[in-house]
Write a structure and sequence with these properties.
- By secondary structure, the protein is of the alpha/beta class.
- The protein has 2 domains: about 160 residues, D-Maltodextrin-Binding Protein, domain 2, CATH 3.40.190; about 120 residues, Periplasmic binding protein-like II (D-Maltodextrin-Binding Protein, domain 2, 3-Layer(aba) Sandwich).
- About 45% of the residues lie in helices and about 20% in strands.
- The chain contains 12 helices and 11 strands.
- Helix 7 packs across helix 12.
- It is globular.
Length: about 325
Amino acid sequence: MNLGAKLVMALLATAFAVTPAVAYPDHPIKVIVPYAAGGPADVTTRLIFNKVTERVGQPFLIDNRGGAGGNIGTAAGAGAAADGYTLTVITPAQVINMTLFANPGYDLGRDFTPVSLFTTAPAVLLAHPKLGVSTFAEMVALAKSKPGQLSFASQGVGVAPHLMMEMIKKRAGIDLVHVPYRGSAPALNDLLAGNVPLMMDSIVTGLPHVRSGALRALAVSTGRRSPLAPEIPTVAESGLPGFEASLWYGVVAPAKTPPEAAATLGKAIADVLALPEIRERVLALGAQPADPAGPAAFAKFLKDETEKWPDVVRSSGAKVQ
């Protein structure tokens, strides 16, 4: 082949060469946490993504945007570019808010692509000893004998523990009076003081008071018992078969994000959740790592959650403008 022919072949090869695709991710990824720094959602997110960074080779930049029960940050995530470089952490609150608020600013099914569930955790139904009950069944029997006379504290109107109690009321056919507080601490303090007899709370904050004898644990909300306190039965095995509700954290991307990007991140998150050191730290937070993790499993989980909560919100009468 003469020089001219070689030159022509080289030019043709250059003209028809396919530029290799840029590997994802090739620059930092922002993660919107719609809650204040230092809270459980923030702590869990940082714990997981610090390790995911090692697997994908890019840092994850945490952007705390609290306000309106998580709506402000979630709406910002819904409006982000669908390129795999903005993620949003979600919890039961965002599912509940779609019914609780007249206009939350997003729709989880329409505006987001599931990436992965992080963790699930039980809430625990606590009772003050002076109520005189030691089991869930005894609480139900007492409430039926005194309709409208027993009350329960909550961390606020429409939060997940409040609505778990509304689910129990409806399923058990009992009438309890809701006493909302501004956060967990004041509600728990009044429970400890005996000013209110019942409360559904995080197992992490409630369990130390159970261990000390200051409170009694009647049941956990999840379908399985917690490894932190396997002696505490579930609501389902205590008289309400099929009852299951959890406190959970997961992460989504804007709708129309490339499936390959969601799959890459989902696989990295699943690998991190399987690490013994991460499992140990997650369990210390009162939660269990998602198993299975990844986009497909989270999509199914979210479908179940979005079918579960709207009726509970409406029947409770809770509403925020």
